[in-house]
Amino acid sequence: MLFLLGDALFLTLIGALSALAMSAVDRLEWNALLLSLLGMALAMAVQMALALLIAPLLGSIESMAPSMVVAMAVPMILEGLDMLGVELVETHPLSLGAAWGFVAFALLRLYGAACRRRFRRTYGAP
Amino acid sequence: MSVSAIWDLRARLYDFCEGSALRRGPHKAALFKDMVGRVLFVAVGTGLEIRHFPPGLEIIGIDISDAMLRRAERRRRQYRGNLQFRQADATQLPFPDRSFDSAVTSCTMCSVPDPLRALAEIHRVLRPGAPLLMFEHVRSRNALLGLALDVMTLWTRLGGTEMNRDTLRNVRASGFGIECVDSVYLDIILAIRARKPH
């Protein structure tokens, strides 16, 4: 239960920080693809540093792999929305990033349950 | 740089980097309780797993790194049973055929340069019908998580660890029958119970 809470909070934080990184990069007003890549790189640098710090508590792979997906996805989502003409005021990217982080946590829970079912179906119960 | 030199170097920081005992410990203990008879532990590292071993067994722990085994020595002495270490390469086990009743690995197949050869060696030294217990991380079948593990492998490979191996396929290809796979974390960290056929 404690790990679930830790995973949820960590991915929400990574989502919010990734959005913050993308917002910071967005001020450069460069090409959209370049901005996405730069935002993703910055978000992943922050994500990796935090994942290493939290690893003794949440586990190394358990913190690194899903948070990397969040750090890759959030800048792309924000840039995609920007390209579609969705105007996000200063605080919205942060809450959108945090929301995406939490959604990623929920999707991972569903995926975990599907994996357990698949393994039980294929190999039998532990 | 040789494999043993890489792991000698990593020995100093190994316990910190592998500091996931809090979350993974109960899963390891549940898996390792199925150890029976004379046990081969492949890649014992700094002995982090020893606390999860059931007491009273005869266990031979091997590792390619002498520095790792030196660090594991204190934990070896704390084990309530017969635990011996030997420096050896997992792909060239210095034991006769059919000399162990069970074998155990823990985050081993990500680190040996040739996992199929290591599994073939484990198969050789196990008696027919003996269990192989594996606590391993593998590549996820999910495209995004798989991609993340591929990206991680770009730098973990420099330290001798591959995050994206298909260990379940390798176990089957080496002649073991997989009896049970327990998800520890999604389809990435698995507790695998396999067996050498009779």
Task: Describe this protein's structure.
The complex is a heterodimer of chains A (126) and B (198). By secondary structure, chain A is mainly α. Helix content of chain A is 86%, strand content 0%. In chain A, α3 (60-83) packs across α4 (92-123). Chain A is elongated. The model of chain A has no long low-confidence stretch (mean pLDDT 88). The termini of chain B are far apart. Chain B is built from six helices and seven strands. In chain B, strands 3-2-1-4-5-7-6 form a seven-stranded mixed beta sheet, with helices on both faces. In chain B, α1 packs across α3. Chain B has 198 residues and is an alpha/beta fold. Helix content of chain B is 36%, strand content 23%. The longest helix of chain B is centred in the N-terminal third of the chain and has 15 residues, at 3-17. Chain B is globular, with a radius of gyration of 16 Å. The interface between A and B is medium-sized, with 28 and 33 residues.
